[in-house]
Specification:
The protein is an alpha+beta fold. The protein has helices at residues 15-25, 34-41, 45-57, 81-90, 94-103, 115-121, 142-156, 167-171, 178-185; strands spanning 32-33, 61-66, 69-74, 108-114, 131-138, 159-165, 189-190. The protein has a four-stranded mixed sheet. Strand 2 (61-66) and strand 3 form a beta hairpin. The longest helix has 15 residues, at 142-156. The model has no long low-confidence stretch (mean pLDDT 92).
Length: 199
């Protein structure tokens, strides 16, 4: 069955391919199990295993066995490595970069990407997003969130804006809150805040 090219980067074969490549290429010193990659992408292990096999065959990824785990890492450095890393950073990079950065911030109950980036990720056609909008639910320190936004923006090569709301406001938004009403009716991409230092 032929899939529609992803709106974020139509050069890729599938959304899963973009998620897998971005996760691995933007953490070049890390290894990921196929199960972890599937969890991060929100798809089946079988779908990721199929994509990983294709990417290993192409030399873009490398893998090894550790017991019953298949561990995946970036493939050998070639002339394609840096341009591909740069392209993945400005397209699919928001999920792995922000999930990693926000995982270390105390006081976050949930985090979502919204706005034009989320719309492209969810398949809505349109122009390349100019920035990445993030909604954090919790009590995280605003100065810390500003620092995360600056650092993530440098890695993603685009502005990152983080908006914080309290858990009670997110659970039961005021009727006159146009911002939250808009966010809730548009595409959202949940960030899995996994601290890889604890993995």
């Amino acid at each position: 069955m032929r899939t529609t090219p992803p709106a974020l980067l139509p050069l890729l074969r599938s959304q899963v391919q973009g998620d897998v490549l971005a996760t691995v290429y933007l953490s070049p010193d890390s290894e990921f199990s196929v199960t972890e990659l599937a969890h991060r992408a929100g798809v089946s292990v079988k779908a990721v295993a199929h994509e990983v096999a294709r990417l290993v065959d192409a030399g873009l990824l490398a893998d090894r066995r550790a017991g019953n785990l298949r561990l995946v890492r970036r493939g050998p450095v070639t002339p394609l490595t840096q341009p591909l890393t740069d392209l993945l950073a400005v397209t699919y990079g928001a999920i792995p970069v922000l999930a990693e950065a926000l995982a270390a911030v105390p006081g976050i109950e949930a985090a979502y990407v919204y706005g034009s980036w989320a719309a492209r990720y969810r398949g809505e056609p349109g122009p390349v997003p100019g920035d990445v909008d993030v909604l954090v639910v919790g009590t995280a320190d605003l100065d810390t969130l500003d620092e995360v936004a600056r650092e993530a923006g440098t890695r993603l090569r685009r502005e990152v804006a983080i908006h914080r709301v309290s858990p009670s406001t997110w659970a039961d938004p005021p009727a006159n809150d146009a911002f939250l009403a808009s966010v809730r009716t548009r595409p959202l991409v949940a960030l899995e805040l996994v601290d890889r230092g604890a993995v």
